[in-house]
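pasting for ref
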Amino acid sequence: MATATKKRSKVTLQPLGDKVVVARDESLDTTAGGIVLPDSAKDKPSRGTIIAVGTGKLLDDGTRGKLQVKKGDRVLFTSYAPETINIDDEEYLLMSESDILAVIE
């Protein structure tokens, strides 16, 4: 279990159950051909780094299932799934572990 805290911030974000907190990767400022993109034309990447994980999904027998991802993993996720949270001008994404498609190694 890990919590997401920003330096100099008093806010702590602890996901519950099978939820994870992800910091989305920055979008590219230029194309491969060198064209500079304005903010309105940038796609939000569907990849990021996990900065906090919950305790795991509660199973029918009352135990907690172990999460397949951990803090620090780089992941790909579905673009429609995450809930956006802003803490001290930083954007974080809160999503279920099932919304993660793959771990980038």
